[in-house]
Write a structure and sequence with these properties.
Number of helices: 12
Distance between the termini: 26 Å
Bound molecules: guanosine-5'-diphosphate, magnesium ion
CATH topology of the largest domain: Rossmann fold
Length: 371
């Protein structure tokens, strides 16, 4: 990674802005196994909106990725056709199993496919039933047989289940402090980098980064690399008592983004310690970061585990990797917090968007696709 970034710096100088990094595997010459490569995509930050310059440790890989894109979209089309037939099969299967029978007294049979489509989107059964009942209640009797009308009401009902918050409100000259917390590996550090880059490049703010590192491990390095490339001040707090100094060290910044780290997914950041760090930082907002690709159970467990730090927003990452987003609905009800951002890929700073209620509902229902 360092080598690739050094190459980017050589080519673009201090104004280099990283757009994405990823590890790629490449087949060796004559097909003798594969080797891992780091690919870095960067743009000239000074060019201000000019065409991004793509450089990479191995330029061949950038070309290979571009060539693969049309194939991905063909696969997507194929997949939709598949999904439709899967859905039909599923309704039949559910009917056979008797799992839809108990719905029938209260739900018009015309809504059974709607119920099946919710289950298909990984919406937990209890919630799916409640949603279908709501839809049935709101529909005019004549409309139950009009798929477009059903779809509209279904969207409304799901929208009502997805509270969203406005994006982080940075104010020039005010130092707002925003902390990201959450399980290891969900994408906190990447999301901090995306936010920082967007606030700096797109909106002209001066963000600074603080990383909480109680384990003295490489987690700091990852953020340091982003800080170098985006050209931002970074400070490290090793203990809650160091937090104030760390924030002060950043100097004249508008926005302080605090990244937090655990040691490994099996050994989560200790919650009490985290709460102490946050108490010292006095953040204006705490965002709990959760992976949309995680199952309902692990999402619920994460919300429970982090209840103590009193997050006031949720960020869902990895929407691009999730099979169905219905689990988000369950956890939204449990956490009772609005969603601030969604992230949809590994690319910094592109793959992030402020949460939008309509879009979120459509994504959950599979009416819209990520990206
Ligand atoms: N597909 C996908 N990967 C992501 C996303 N956000 C982060 N990642 C990847 O998830 C991995 C862990 O991210 P990291 O920011 O280190 O997680 P942290 O432990 O919470 O700080 C990295 O490989 C990221 O590139 C996303 O929205 N989509
Ligand atoms: Mg991290």
């Amino acid at each position: 990674m360092r080598e690739a970034l050094a190459q980017v710096r050589r080519d673009l100088g201090g104004a280099a802005v990283i757009l994405g990094t990823r590890e790629v595997r490449r087949r060796r010459f004559l097909g003798l196994g594969t080797r891992a490569l780091i690919e870095v995509t960067a743009a000239n930050g000074r060019a201000g909106g000019a065409e991004p310059v793509v450089t990479a440790a191995v330029p061949v890989m950038a070309l290979a990725a571009a060539a693969a894109a049309p194939m991905a979209s063909r696969a997507l089309h194929a997949q939709f056709g598949d999904q439709l037939s899967q859905l039909h099969a599923m309704v039949e299967e559910l009917t056979k199993q008797g799992r839809v029978d108990h719905l029938l007294p209260e739900v018009p049979s015309a809504l059974v496919p709607t119920y099946a489509s919710l289950l298909e989107a990984e919406v937990p059964e209890v919630l799916a039933r409640r949603i279908v009942r709501d839809v049935a209640e709101r529909l005019e009797p004549d409309d139950t047989l009009r798929p477009a009308a059903v779809r509209d009401v279904l969207r409304e009902v799901v929208e009502a289940c997805v509270p969203v918050a406005p994006p982080i409100g940075a104010v020039a000259g005010m130092r707002r402090v925003i902390a990201l917390v959450g399980p290891t590996g969900v994408g906190k550090t990447t999301t901090v980098a995306k936010l920082a880059a967007n606030f700096k490049l797109a909106q002209g703010f001066r963000p600074g980064l603080v990383t909480v590192d109680t384990y003295r491990i490489a987690a700091v390095e990852q953020l340091r690399i982003y800080a170098e490339i985006i050209n931002l001040p970074l400070a490290v707090a090793n203990a809650p008592g160091e937090m104030e100094r760390a924030i002060g060290e950043l100097g004249d910044v508008d926005l302080v983004l605090i990244d937090t780290a655990g040691r490994s997914p099996r050994d989560e950041v200790k919650i009490r310690e985290l709460a102490d760090f946050l108490a010292a930082a006095q953040p204006d907002e705490v965002h709990l970061v959760l992976s949309a690709a995680a199952g309902e159970r692990s999402l619920r467990a994460a919300v429970d585990r982090f209840a103590r730090v009193r997050a006031d927003r949720l960020i869902f990452t990895k929407l691009d990797e999730a099979d169905g987003l219905g689990g988000m609905l369950a956890v939204l009800g449990q956490a009772d917090r609005p969603v601030s951002y969604l992230t949809t890929g590994q690319a910094v700073p592109d793959d992030i968007e402020p949460a939008d209620r309509k879009r979120l509902a459509r994504l959950i229902l599979g009416d819209e696709v990520v990206a």
